[in-house]
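Think of the structure tokens as a kind of shorthand, similar to the way a musician reads notation: each symbol stands for something richer, in this case the local conformation of the backbone. In the example below we present two proteins back to back. Begin with the first one, reading the sequence and then the tokens, and try to describe in your own words what changes along the chain.
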Amino acid sequence: MKKWSGYRPEISQEKFDTIIIGSGMSGLTTAVLLSQHGRRVLVLEKHFKVGGFTHTFKRKNYEWDVGIHYIGEVHNTKSHSRKLFDRVTDGKLKWAKMDDNYDRIIFPDKSYDFVAPKEKFIENLNRHFPEEKKAIRDYVSLLQSYVRTGRGYFTSKVLPSWITPFLYRSMTKPFFQYADRMTKDVIREFTHNEKLLGVLAGQWGDHGSPPGKSSFAMHAMVARHYLDGGNYPVGGSRMIAEYATDVIEKHGGKVVVNAGVDEIITKGKKAVGVRLVNGDELFASQIVSSAGLVNTVHTFLRKQSAGDTLKENMKNVQSTESYLCLYMGLNKSAKELGFKNTNLWIYPGYDHDQNVAKFRNNPDEAFPVVYVSFPSAKDPDWDKNHPGCATMEAITLGPWDQFKAWKDEPWKSRGDSYETLKESLAIKILDVVYKYVPEAKDAMDYYELSTPLSVRDMAHYPIGEMYGLDHTPKRFHQKWLRPQTDIKNLYITGQDVTTVGLTSALFSGLLTASSVLGKNLMKTL
């Protein structure tokens, strides 16, 4: 495991072309691409580990990824996703293909397997819904044709400001045909079967909003992404940051931890540097924030009048839900336990919006979703690195209001009442897990619950939000959600610029680097 370099005051005396705040996927991608084009970069990470939601943590002899569960398309060496991952990790990151049955959508009466490739996906659903064969095939065809329209929309985010008024409408019109509509409404054009709708929307947890609240654009991008199956990084997700950091350092850049940024320093309407929480000031020609839009605008620019327009624009967007994650360690290997690597999506009923509404009104209701992942079964290197044990993760919604009473208490010292609540929620999640994975019960050796407060403290999202900005139709119309801000030399990157997910964050780094360099780096793939 790589040993990360901590911040030292003498770094403030060095010269860098670009300072990047945050070492998540988008920050590292931006840093690598700029480094490869001759820019000396400095990546500042507040945490004591590099990687953002790609980092891992350990308890006893167990290790868990905090944010990566499966990635589509990267088994195809010709896909843009794979080519960009190879670029960022110097071709060293390896991927393990999951079983063809990548997701299982589970309801009280029946479960439905999502199986790759596309024809098997269609064939499997046809067996459950023989009267809906045309609807299913037409739906899948739309996913494939529609997602391609996103290229024009996302490319428009890096157009020079002088040309945007002339090209924006023609580049984005096909995308908005469905981005302006809710997922549920579009699926109902294909079928009136509410069970089939519930199944097709069964991956809504991958973007954080049920079908009645989410733009069909977001749903389509997620569903299409996995039609050819899922993959997992060999050695775990921490390998991404380790390989990317090596590339940055090879080109003369630096990545340092324990380097929390307090403010972005502006001079007039121009960003010139950053001030760290320890008071050190560092300067560069460009500043890139990969720390999320809420942090960038309301924390780093809180004292700067240059950020007033961004603060006003923020009123047009909202954050996603916060969540709980139960990390579980088992004292037998995945093979001994008979674990497959298929993800489980467990629901109390087919109406996802109703499930969420009931839970919001009363947290004692059934969880609206419990997503169960088996990382140790996905990683072919797991048994070599962690013999004789296995891990699981279970994720569900966790309302911020349920935890805000302890928001001012320090990490690991929030008192007995907080720990009692955590334990009761952990038991409630375990009840669901044991029902569908009974073999886990006798092997359960350790579990630990991450709450919205944990996410706030570790990932620095203010209310523990799962996926940054909510993916409503309105969100996609925010023209200001682009790498170049209205503050000269200040850029943003990350899922708020594009959409949710590791691959999206990866491509947001590509867009941001393109914007900084004034080059279309997509062509270099």
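Once you have a description of the first chain, move to the second and do the same.
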Amino acid sequence: MVNTDNNSPGFFARLKQHHIYRVVAAYAVGAWIVMQAATRVFPYFGWSRAVPILIIILLLGFPVVLVIAWMLIKPTDPAKQDSWQRRHWKLGAALSVAVVILVVISGFYAWRFSKHHTQLLAMVATNRPTAVPVSASSVPPVSATTIPTKSIAVLPFENLSSDKNNAYFASGMQDMILTKLADIGDLKVIARTSTAKYASHPDNLKIIAQQLGVATLLEGSVQKSGNQVLINVQLIDANTDNHLWAEAYQRNLHNIFDVEGEVAQQVALALNARLSQTETARLGTAPTQNPQAYDSFLRAEYDANRAYANFKTPDFEAAVRNYSTATQQDSKFLLAWSRLAQMQSLMAWTDSPVLDVNRKQLAAQAKQSARRAEDLAPQSAEAQMAQGWYRLYVLTDLNGALSAFQAAMELEPQNAEALYGVGTTYYHLGRFDASAETYQKAAVLDPRNLNILSQLAHTYEELRRYGQAEQVIKQMLAIDPASLTATINLANVHILAGDLDGAQAVLDAAPASVQVDFRYSLRQVELMLCRRDYTGARHVLLSAVPEEHTDLDRGQVEEDFGDVEWAAGNHEPARAHYQRAAMLLEAALMQSPERARGDLSWVYARLGRTQEALAQAQLFLKDRQAAKSVQREEYALANLAAVQAQIGQVDEAITGLDRLLAMPTGEFISVPLLKMDPTWDPIRKDPRFQALLKKYEKFQTDVIPAPAISTSAENGHG
């Protein structure tokens, strides 16, 4: 029967009768509150991905709520309840029960999902290491306006595994995430070296971010148990301490390969960084799909980091062994081949600090590794880096190395290691201005890398910009007050600039751990010779070398003893020391010819063995020239000029000094040093020598202010 009741209320009136407008308003307000709370709270628990899902549920729930409200909420006037609603109230009740059941089930699984993560947070709070004290003055202040918003540093990941031997895995995950982040050209990414000494979860984030020159910090922890891995990461705005994004990844060793790419993509999204198609593809590509190879690679990275920090042969050998294992387990593991080539090339380098290795064999292996990386992906940054280090350290093909490093930079502009390679190649080519500029760029990406800062300081020294070198080395000492390299180099900068009091102050302020080192003692003696403090120099040399030092070390001490006595006018005792030095250096010549020849040529000159002195000095120069490094050649030229001055070849010595002073050779030769160093006493009164000093004195640049210097041989004589 058709209802013909014309008094039946209209649609909008029925909405009002059922209080639908109130329901819509209440739902809108409630949904807005829920979404605001979720966007702030969910990331803290690692539920960032749940926020979009919640929004979809709220949108889909809107019509469901309207239907339920229509069916369950009675009109204001019971007499106007329509028959359809009375017949279907049971359906509405059933729907309500179903919604309640779904909410309960969802809550149960959300609780299950977050339970382990909550326990992890508790473990972090309980086991969080004490933050490394950091002074706001550790590094020259960085203006907040100079820090790009799209900048990030990854702090060391905390190892939460019960087995502390899994520390390599946490460290390796940090490295892999950094490697992926460096692929993003729109991000400024700080290299690992600069963050290595910070705590995993420090309290002073703002100060650390200022020291590193970044706006955000990524913290993380890794818990590995057997085949299962839990990785927790959180991106923090260093200025506000707000969590911009966080996530927990529960994986096993068979599906862990894409985590670093996912993290990098989420960081890019959180920081609004642009991603090109090529970068997106690289982020989505795992370095290997072999879990055993991946594990071996992470172990190798851990060994390599220790090797670069300590320069101990066993650490280098362990890194090579594990990189090799990774390449055997996955012959297409490009990154492993690249890192293996770099490590082998460094160890094969003639001047490498890694001793007791078969350099010839390592050179052949480095060639194979670099070639394998190039065969796998010739246009990749990894292959170019492998070629760069091989050509620099093994072939001494400086132009080839420069081309390779520059190609890597074009592919990865944020790669601090590639910048360091370019700067180092420029340095050996003698292009010191370009080297300094490149090292400065590398220092922006790796501001607490002492190696980069040390090389930058050496470059300034070559350019005789001693004031700038001093500032860089002071920055090194602010980072590591116990750095032997920085201490003796800073003292040397003051000596080169003629500031002997400043050099003495640097050495006096050195910590005890530095003052006991052999190289510190040699720098002290050099300073005392310039001061003509022979008594003090003798005292230092008497305890300079323990018995376990090499023939080369003991030969250098005997040589310095001879220099002290010779400058003091005691030539017979000096000759006795030089005789002992000659025997020790001749023995060292068999093991380390390039390091011993320079000292031996000087000792022969003082002993009057003129032809042998010239022969060794010429061989030393030839060896250095074979390295095709302008910087290494300079020292040999300075040594030859000193030998010539000693044996009476004054014209040749003056010509050599003229050439050196006209070049950027300030690391070895400066006008203030020539005025003080007893080495040049044999020609000091020669008018040509004095004219040379006057000629180049006006070209000394950026010199540290120094008091007047006395060159008298009376101070401390005897």
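Compare your description with these statements about the second chain. The first strand starts at residue 151 and ends at 154.
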